[in-house]
Amino acid sequence: MSGRKSTEGLNDLTLLGNQGTTYSFDYAPEVLEAVDNLHPERDYFVKFNCPEFTSLCPLTRQPDFATMYISYVPNQKIVESKSLKLYLFSFRNHGDFHEDCVNIIMNDLIQLLDPRYIEVWGKFTPRGGISIDPWCNYGKPGTKYEEMASFRLMNHDLYPEKVDNR
């Protein structure tokens, strides 16, 4: 199986390789696309780091900036990275609190991918002298990944003095 190539499912992609990409300035979960996981028999993490994530405060409409970390153990599907980039960009004019943003992102990816495990961590830059770094996770119910999610939640950020506050 190692080194096998497959274009199965790639014909459904609309963004990868498209030179006429349109950027949505409004929340757009419909831009997310998935492709087949070519290694569904193996547990492995896929990690995305988006250091230029922006959204708006829902009350003041001031911009919020963050590095968004998304890590997941795929099941049958993986997210296509260009669609993820465009999806994250669509938060630019979206007004939601930091905690809502990370949960919305996680929920949309769960709906798209049905992953074994996923976690999303937003490390927002300080405003008013305080940084807010919400973290959420999910493990597929009734599996070892549900136990993994519980364990990681209970052991998340045990040493906050090690957290980079930018």
List keywords for this structure.
4-stranded antiparallel sheet, two-stranded antiparallel ribbon, 166 residues, 25% strand, alpha+beta, 3 helices, flat
Strand content: 15-25%
How many β-strand stretches? 6
Unreliable runs: none
The gyration radius over C-alpha positions equals 17 Å
Mean pLDDT: 88
Outline type: flat
H/E element string? Answer: EEEEHHEEH
Order of strands, widest sheet: 2-3-5-6
* Helix content, binned percent: 10-25%
The N- and C-terminal alpha carbons lie at a distance of 43 Å
Description:
- The protein is α+β, with helices and mostly antiparallel strands.
- 22% of the residues lie in helices and 25% in strands.
- The protein contains three helices and six strands, in the order ββββααββα.
- It has helices at residues 81-89, 98-113, 144-154; strands spanning 34-36, 46-56, 63-73, 77-79, 117-124, 135-139.
- The protein has a four-stranded antiparallel sheet with strand order 2-3-5-6, with helices on both faces.
- The longest helix has 16 residues, at 98-113.
- It is flat.
- The relative contact order is 0.16.
Q: How does the SSE layout of this entry go?
A:
Layout (H helix, E strand, L loop, with lengths): L33 E3 L9 E11 L6 E11 L3 E3 L1 H9 L8 H16 L3 E8 L10 E5 L4 H11 L12
